[in-house]
Design a protein that fits this description.
166 residues; mainly alpha
Length: 166
């Protein structure tokens, strides 16, 4: 084919391999075998059991970055970038494994630290408040909404946010 400027244009049609893999399945008609579903549920259950131990490692990393930002104020911005990255990773996982408070607290921490050019003493205090709240959730194995404990942790964190917000 030739376009308006006389340039030869070629169109390529690539095979839709995904369509081939789902051939014969009407939308909504796909089924998963009971065995495969049970196996997936068992794997998720196992991962949920391991989640508190795994996420504790991330909380320790957050705590280390916070400590570095206290000890080395001239490098706070790079420490906050790492804190933001860790919080971003954490916010997508807590709810999946039965700890939505971790997701909520990590989302809040990410919002506070993401893309910050200036890192004040107040922001450093807010990071500490978030890390302390997450540590309390995992140490107490506060799953789900946490009931009264979850409400108290959320309230305490919100009070810190109100106090230290700029």
């Amino acid at each position: 084919m030739v376009d308006k400027k006389g340039v030869i244009v070629r169109f390529y049609r690539f095979k839709n391999r995904l369509k081939e893999k789902t051939a014969g399945l009407a939308p909504g008609a796909a089924t998963i075998s009971a065995d495969a579903l049970a196996e997936a549920e068992q794997a998720l259950s196992k991962m949920s059991e391991d989640y508190p131990d795994w996420v504790q490692g991330l909380i320790v990393k957050l705590q280390e970055q916070h400590g570095r930002s206290v000890d080395t104020p001239e490098k706070r911005r790079e420490f906050m970038e790492e804190i933001s990255r860790i919080a971003h990773d954490m916010k997508g996982q807590g709810g999946t494994f039965g700890y939505p408070l971790i997701t909520d607290f990590a989302d809040s921490l990410y919002s506070l630290t993401q893309g910050r050019k200036e890192v004040s003493d107040n922001l450093v205090e807010l990071v500490k408040s978030h890390v302390d709240a997450m540590r309390a959730v995992i140490r107490g194995r506060v799953s789900g909404d946490g009931g009264e404990i979850g409400k108290k942790l959320t309230q305490t964190l919100n009070e810190a946010i109100d106090k230290y917000s700029e």
